[in-house]
Amino acid sequence: MIKLNTNMLLTVLIGTMVLVSAMQTLQLVSLTSALSSGRIAVGTGAAVASAPLVSSGAAASGSLANLPSMVGGC
Questions:
Q1: What is the pLDDT of residues 23-70, one digit of tens each?
Q2: Is there a contact between 51 and 66 (Cβ–Cβ < 8 Å)?
Q3: pTM (whole model) above 0.85
């Protein structure tokens, strides 16, 4: 049976989290500089979602027609 050294395991996990955080910081700085220099434009329009189809033939109310077609990933 292999004995896990908890101090080494915690050190590796914290080091991994710091590395991922540093990578995300670099990506954020790159994105911020691209936005400020104009290489990337910010969209102003909202995406339009299509209403789900009603298969029972009954008319859906206005609030139900705006729901996404896949709730819960089914």
A1: 999 999 999 999 888 888 777 666 666 655 555 545 555 666 666 666
A2: yes
A3: no
DSSP the chain: -PPP-HHHHHHHHHHHHHHHHHHHHHHHHHHHHHHHHTSSPPP-SPPPPPPPP-SSSPPPPHHHHTS-S-STT-
Angle at alpha carbon of residue 57, lines to 56 and 58, rounded to 5°: 90
- Tokens representing residue 5 in the block: 């050294």
Contact 41, 32 (CB under 8 A): no
